[in-house]
Amino acid sequence: MRKINFAEFGGPEVLRLVEAEEPHAGPGRIRVAVRAAGVNPVDWRIREGQVLGAHPVELPAGVGLDAAGVVDEVGDGVEGVEVGDRVFGEGADTYAEFAVLSAWARMPEGLTFEEAAGYPSVVETALRVIREVGVEAGQTLLVSGASGGVGSAVLQIARGRGITVIGTAGAANQDYLRGLGALATTYDEGWVERVRHLGRVDAALDLAGSGVIPELVELTGDPRKVVSIADLGAPRLGVRFSGVAGSVPDALAEAVDLISRGRLHIPVEKSYALTDAAAAHTDSRAGHARGRRVLVV
């Protein structure tokens, strides 16, 4: 089968399309014929060799956590899913023609493979950081870097829970944030004062890792009310870095419910061929996304 891997840490140029042995579903796992794979910032962070304790790497390594596809192997002890089912979920080395998933759910009706591939890690992360930052109904959450996949999910989930959301993003994405129910502002010079004019901030999330942790602490008045998923230096400022996933099956179940009820929609900004994985990483690292990027296999 064809698969993307890398034999050394480095820039996107280390990614290679190779022929590899097919993986197989062990106990408690399923294998899918991958139709699309989600492109997440954690993918290029791992490729660069950033120290992420939750994702130890042994070279050469494959790439990718999220996928949507058709079940073609079911491991021992697995119930409730059959060969031929359309599923989306999380596993390992999903930038490939076949991948083994450790958590999955049936795709909601009406969702394409490309759309479905963009949800698993994104929704799990969004649910986790909302929980960890401790924001409640009636309060205001500031989201720095709000237009990407996680930000798009956070805005919709938080608004559905009665939380006011202030989102920062580039000028081109202001209307997009407003369409998701956020109070929007750009992150260029003077953004802190503009946020203050929009209202009191009870909690804040750093989703972009753009060096704004001190300002988020200033706006909330308490480093314990700030969580980052993108700045590994956050703990030095008393801010929690959230990098270890919670229950992915629970997150997928909630994603299915929200999508099915029309409460969650994350657009696919751009799709790439498997051979263009390096370009997908380059674009993901550059930021400024509006929704998700995915590979079509």
From TrEMBL:
<dbReference type="Pfam" id="PF13602">
    <property type="entry name" value="ADH_zinc_N_2"/>
</dbReference>
<dbReference type="InterPro" id="IPR051603">
    <property type="entry name" value="Zinc-ADH_QOR/CCCR"/>
</dbReference>
<dbReference type="Pfam" id="PF08240">
    <property type="entry name" value="ADH_N"/>
</dbReference>
<feature type="domain" description="Enoyl reductase (ER)">
    <location>
        <begin position="10"/>
        <end position="295"/>
    </location>
</feature>
<keyword id="KW-0694">RNA-binding</keyword>
<keyword id="KW-0521">NADP</keyword>
<keyword id="KW-0963">Cytoplasm</keyword>
<protein>
    <submittedName>
        <fullName>NADP-dependent oxidoreductase</fullName>
    </submittedName>
</protein>
<dbReference type="InterPro" id="IPR002364">
    <property type="entry name" value="Quin_OxRdtase/zeta-crystal_CS"/>
</dbReference>
<dbReference type="InterPro" id="IPR036291">
    <property type="entry name" value="NAD(P)-bd_dom_sf"/>
</dbReference>
<comment type="subunit">
    <text>Homotetramer.</text>
</comment>
<dbReference type="InterPro" id="IPR011032">
    <property type="entry name" value="GroES-like_sf"/>
</dbReference>
<dbReference type="InterPro" id="IPR013154">
    <property type="entry name" value="ADH-like_N"/>
</dbReference>
<dbReference type="InterPro" id="IPR020843">
    <property type="entry name" value="ER"/>
</dbReference>
